[in-house]
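ok so I'm stuck.
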Amino acid sequence: MNSVQYDNALKEQAAACPGIIEKIVKGFWSGITKAGFAPVEVLKASRHIYLTGSGDSYSAAMALEPCYVHYLTKLGTNIYVDTALENSRYTRFLAQETPAEAELTLIVAICSGEFSRRTEEVFERAGDLGIPALGITEQSTPPETDAGYFLKVCLPEISCGKPGCSAYVGVLVSASLLAAYMAEAKGDYPEGTTKTLADAMISLGNDYKACMEAFDVQAIRLAKLWGAEIQNFYGVGDGIDMASVRFLASKAIDTAGIFGGFTNSVDWRHNAKYIKKAVETCVVFFGEEDSDSRRSIATAVDEAFHMGFKVVFVGDVTAAEFGIESPVESFQIPKAPKEYGYLTAWFNHLPIDLLVSYFAPFKKKGGCYDT
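replied:
not stuck anymore, here's the structure
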C-alpha cells in the first residue's frame, strides 16, 4: 500500500481485510468442531433467533439481519435484532411467559471486540431463563457463564485489536456462515450451502483485494486535499448500508478525533443537511445499483454537493450511472453477487476506513475531540 509514512492501525487492518477471508472461513470450519460450540440439536431446535451486540457489534448484528432472514425464515423461524442493553434488561422473551419456549430460542451475541458488560448480562439473563446463547468473538477467553456456547473468530495476529476493523469483518464472515450452517442443519437448505456462501465471500474479498491499492491512492489524495478543514464526518446509507455508516462514524471518532454521525438519505435531506459549517464536514453516501432508494440517495448527494459539503459517493456503479449529476468524488466498489447482495456491507466500508484513517495526520488542531 502507498503512503507508508501515514500508516496507522485502521489503515493496516482495512488493507488486510480482503486477504484474510479464507483464513476466517477455515477458522469457522475448525471452530464448529470445538467442544465449546453449540450442539447441532440446539441449532436445529431454534425458532426464535436474537442477534445482539454493543457498539460495532450491534452494527454487525444489523448487517447480518438480511443474511439470517434469507437462510432461516424459510420455514417460519423468527429473527430479531436489538442492542445488548435491550436484550439484557428489557426484551420480553417468549420463555418468560412459556418456559418451554426457552429451548426453541437462541441468542447470537456478536462480540467484535472485548465483551461489553451489557453483553455479559445477556448471557447471564439467558442462563436465568434457560435460553441457549452463542457468542461469536475474536477473544481467546470469553466470559465464564453456564449458559454460553462460543465460536472463536480466527484472525491473523496483525489484524487483532483496536480499532476493530478486522474483527468487524471477521464476525460478519463467521456469523453469516453460522446462518447457512444452521439452515443446513435444519434441512431448510441442501448440503453444501455453507461452502457455497464461503466461496462467494472469498471471491468477493479477492475482488476487493485487487482494488485496495487504487482505494489507498484516492484516500490519501482526498485526505491531503480536505484534511486540514475536516472536523465532522457523516455517513449516509439506506438498507444494508446503515450498518456500514454506523460503523464508520465510530471509526471517525476513534481514529481521526472528529465528530462522527450517521443517518439515512431521507433524514439527511430533511434534517441533517442543515448542520452548520458544511465546508468542515465530509459526507459519505452509499448506494447500490439495485437500491430501492436510489433516487433519494442521488438527490441527497446532489443537494449536499451544492450546499458545500465535502461529498464522497461509494457504490457498485459510477456516480453518473447511479443518477448523480454533480461531479462528486467517488469510490466504485466491486459488485456483490445478486443472490448474496447483503455481502456488500461486509466490505463496502473499507475504502472509507482508509480515508478516515488518513484524516488524523492532516486535520487542523482544535477539533471537538482534540485533547
